[in-house]
Amino acid sequence: YPGDSANVASGAVIMNGTTDVTGNYDITYVNGNLNVTKNDTEITIASGDCATTYDAQDHTCEEYTVTYGGDPVPECDGCEPAPGTHEYILPTGDTVTVKDPVVLHDVDTVPNRFEYTITNDTNYTSVDTTWGTTQVDKRPVTITADSNSWMYDGESHSDDGWMDTPPAGLADGETVTSVTVTGSITYPGDSANVASGAVIMNG
């Protein structure tokens, strides 16, 4: 590990031809020094970008890239990390563990944050992280106001219904509970019956 350690000399054997003459010497040993510096190789940990359409479920974007000195570090095949955790073995033998991805449920765009640890992390001086984005887009749903027809009788007619045609595109487990429908007609012809203000509930 980084630091200094004495390189200790001892046990010298001095020969004269085939004769050991070590005992004729008062030997002074001077230690050498062994030094390991901290690793300044650039390590990068980056999360990817993910986008999906709202479906009433939780979503994570567990797409990660780890590099060491610019070279990609593959994810560990033989490792068995906990769910939501990914491990990468550096050339030094130390492990980069990426975990705790951001969880997104509703429509939003947020940084694809994560946490990470590196075995013997204090021995590395250059670790950079980059976040991608996690995005949930709005889900298209179609709500159709009812259509109706009357024979002219001098009265104003309206139809505030919206369930003749079932709403299309809802996520599983969600329902339309109310819709505002406005429109009226008195004289022969056509007039739009306008749906708006829908309320969609989960549960």
Question: Could you explain the architecture of this structure?
Answer:
The protein is mainly beta. It has strands at residues 3-7, 15-16, 19-20, 32-36, 43-47, 50-53, 64-68, 71-73, 86-89, 95-99, 108-111, 115-118, 127-130, 133-137, 174-182, 194-202. The strands form 6 sheets. Strands 8-7-5-13 form a 4-stranded mixed sheet, with no helix packed on it.
**Helical coverage, percent range:** under 10%
Rg from alpha-carbon coordinates: 36 Å
Distance between the termini: 57 Å
Strand proportion, as a percent range, falls in: 35-45%
Q: What is the H-and-E element order?
A: EEEEEEEEEEEEEEEE
What order do the strands of the largest sheet run in, or round the barrel if closed?
8-7-5-13
Give the helix/strand class.
Answer: mainly beta
Could you name the ranges where pLDDT drops below 50 across 5 or more consecutive residues? none
Overall morphology: rod-shaped
In DSSP terms (H or I, runs of 4 or more residues), the helix count works out at 0
Overall average pLDDT: 96
Main sheet? 4 strands, mixed
Number of E-type strands = 16
